[in-house]
């Protein structure tokens, strides 16, 4: 099991500089399955950790006091996606996350604590709730129900 106290250095997609604190989970076949953003991730500036061809864009932004983000809205446009990606923010509690490769084989488990975030890029996942827990999930919608949107891994 990987614990977040063991920081792993990866490359920031935009700046190509090393970014301390992100944990990149790669399957034995070399596929990126998840990115973990610990609560104490402290990179300054705007850091997009998702690739341009991902259907879900994930960024971590840090701003100094006095800065502003100009008021804006997002233009409507049609987007075609080929997979559902998900971000889970652990608002409260502690969970063990089992990660599965593209062949539905479990290859890794990680533990998340309050304030941590995980970006499920590909493959499968399951959560074991270790303490009373509250999570916030973000993924493409609408959610049409378990029978339509999910396939259980045996």
Write the layout of secondary structure elements.
Layout: E1 10-11, E2 18-19, E3 23-26, E4 32-37, E5 45-48, E6 59-62, E7 86-92, E8 94-100, E9 106-113, E10 117-120, E11 124-129, E12 134-139, H1 146-149
Antiparallel strand pairs: 1-2, 3-4, 4-10, 5-6, 7-10, 7-12, 8-9, 8-11
Task: Report on the architecture of this protein.
- With 154 residues, the chain is mainly β.
- The chain has one domain: Sandwich (Jelly Rolls), CATH 2.60.120.
- The chain contains one helix and twelve strands, in the order E-E-E-E-E-E-E-E-E-E-E-E-H.
- The chain has one helix at residues 146-149; strands at 10-11, 18-19, 23-26, 32-37, 45-48, 59-62, 86-92, 94-100, 106-113, 117-120, 124-129, 134-139.
- The strands form four sheets. A five-stranded antiparallel sheet has the order 3-4-10-7-12, with no helix packed on it. Strands 9-8-11 form a three-stranded antiparallel sheet, with no helix packed on it. A two-stranded antiparallel sheet has the order 1-2.
- Mean pLDDT is 84; it is low at 1-19.
In short:
The chain is mainly beta. The protein has 1 helix and 12 strands. A 5-stranded antiparallel β-sheet has the order 3-4-10-7-12, with no helix packed on it. A 3-stranded antiparallel β-sheet has the order 9-8-11, with no helix packed on it.
